[in-house]
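Retro notes (design track)

What went well: tokenization of the new backbones is finally stable.
What didn't: we kept losing track of which sequence belonged to which structure.
Fix going forward: every design gets posted as structure first, then sequence, in one message. First example under the new rule, 450 residues:
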């Protein structure tokens, strides 16, 4: 096992990894920008190294600085958290060349899943159900028009290098195709330096269901059920739950096995998430994320496992601590993302936290790097905490969420907490009756968003 690991991240996820390391008797090294000298992750780690100025490009994304911090401190492995360098295949390649261990998948698997066409081809060959559409890339408008007729409108044109909704355009009818095709290509080119696109049937009212998988890199893998992350605004998730309110035990077992078999087959190592659209009882693969996700705690809640501990174990060459038959769902978990943002427009709201009180009690977990007197810097994302509740069933989790939100105090900045109080009053949220468009429609009618 490693004696010391470095966490190439900040905020709540850096704390999450430091905590797992401490329970395992592993030393932790925090890295930080000059804007984060007073940040909680720096205080909580055993050691810290300043790696650059505030801009992420020159600090949390600076590969030479992070490798230097490993050399200075003697850290043997790097946990990337999510975002930043977590899905950067070039970074993982460089670590391999320096004899450092990346706590995550191989550079090859990151590369495969980072190119959406290659990811889809790979998954399809492994027996994972995909959205009907083009076979690979679509080079010309004439090809796009032919595929549009074959697949049937509406269709969606996606950049192979895309993500977060960028480089994605819907063509409702044949006459939209030229504009949608050219726009998707142009956005792929300008955002990712790659104008290759592919085409899929556009599913109009799906849910976003993602399957948590975990592999040991030696041909063994498990699944840890699904999360429903349909409540999103502009491709930012705000509310996530497990199990999915619309998924039956039989569906879970079936799609779960398809996913665990697929990742076992490629000797995948560590945590991964296979994203699906779910409509009329069918799952359609869209993407795979090769990292620990923000919303992993809801899965930890219902399965009672520590996914970060497992990531560290398999990265050190040790086995996972469970097999599929050991994994049983216990109750229901919900996470809400608390952002320092001002409603109704969700504009970022950095500033000084004058008061902070985290909720507690049975079934309540608050993952946050806040403290009273801390100043949220303006340079990074606006996530300041995740409130995760667990109950014996969904109704109990919802009641616990309402109760713990009312205990939470964050003063000095605006937050998204009022949104959650309002959402919990909605019959559709109470019954789990929502799809990927529900929240944006609700915001338009309740917050006058355009
Ligand atoms: C789709 C889709 C409908 N049909 N693909 C959005 C981001 C990217 N990860 C995939 N996305 C979508 N792909 C087909 N064939 C609708 C979306 C989509 C979406 C997906 C998940 C969660 C929220 C979303 C919001 C808008 C569009």
């Amino acid at each position: 096992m490693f004696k010391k690991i470095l966490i190439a991240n900040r905020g709540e996820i850096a704390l999450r990894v430091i905590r797992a390391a401490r329970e395992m008797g592993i030393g932790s090294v925090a890295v930080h920008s000059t804007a984060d000298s007073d940040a909680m992750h720096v205080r909580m780690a055993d050691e810290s190294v300043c790696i650059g100025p505030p801009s992420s490009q020159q600090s949390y994304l600076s590969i030479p600085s992070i490798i230097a911090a490993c050399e200075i401190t003697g850290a043997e492995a790097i946990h990337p958290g999510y975002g930043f360098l977590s899905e950067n295949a070039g970074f993982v390649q460089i670590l391999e060349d320096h004899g450092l261990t990346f706590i995550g998948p191989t550079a090859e698997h990151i590369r495969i899943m980072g190119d959406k066409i290659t990811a889809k081809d790979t998954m399809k060959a492994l027996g994972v159900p995909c959205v009907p559409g083009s076979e690979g890339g679509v080079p010309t408008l004439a090809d796009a028009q032919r595929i549009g007729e074959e697949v049937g409108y509406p269709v969606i044109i996606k950049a192979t290098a895309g993500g977060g909704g960028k480089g994605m355009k819907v063509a409702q009818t044949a006459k939209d195709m030229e504009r949608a095709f050219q726009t998707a290509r142009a956005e792929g080119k300008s955002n990712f330096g790659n104008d290759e696109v592919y085409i899929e049937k556009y599913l109009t009212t799906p849910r976003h269901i993602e399957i948590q998988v975990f592999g040991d890199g030696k041909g063994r893998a498990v699944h840890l059920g699904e999360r429903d992350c349909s409540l999103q605004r502009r491709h930012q998730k705000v509310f996530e739950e497990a199990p999915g309110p619309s998924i039956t035990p039989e569906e879970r077992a079936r799609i779960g096995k398809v996913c665990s078999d697929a990742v076992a087959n490629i000797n995948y190592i560590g945590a991964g998430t296979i994203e699906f659209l779910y409509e009329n009882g069918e799952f359609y693969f869209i993407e795979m994320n090769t990292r620990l996700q923000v919303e992993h705690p809801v899965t930890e809640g219902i399965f009672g496992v520590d996914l970060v501990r497992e990531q560290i174990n398999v990265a050190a060459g040790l086995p996972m601590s469970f097999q599929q038959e050991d994994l049983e769902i216990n109750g229901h978990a919900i996470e809400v993302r608390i952002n320092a943002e001002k409603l109704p427009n969700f504009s970022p709201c950095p500033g000084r936290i004058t008061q902070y009180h985290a909720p507690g009690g049975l079934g309540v977990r608050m993952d946050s790097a806040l403290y009273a007197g801390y100043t949220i810097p303006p340079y990074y994302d606006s996530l300041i905490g995740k409130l995760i509740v667990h109950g014996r069933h969904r109704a109990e989790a919802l009641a616990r969420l309402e109760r713990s939100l009312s205990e939470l105090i964050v003063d000095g900045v605006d937050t998204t907490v009022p949104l959650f109080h309002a959402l919990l009053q909605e019959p559709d949220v109470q019954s789990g009756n929502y799809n990927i468009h529900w929240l944006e429609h609700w915001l338009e009618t309740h917050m006058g968003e355009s």
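Added context from the reviewer: The two ends are 53 Å apart (CA to CA).
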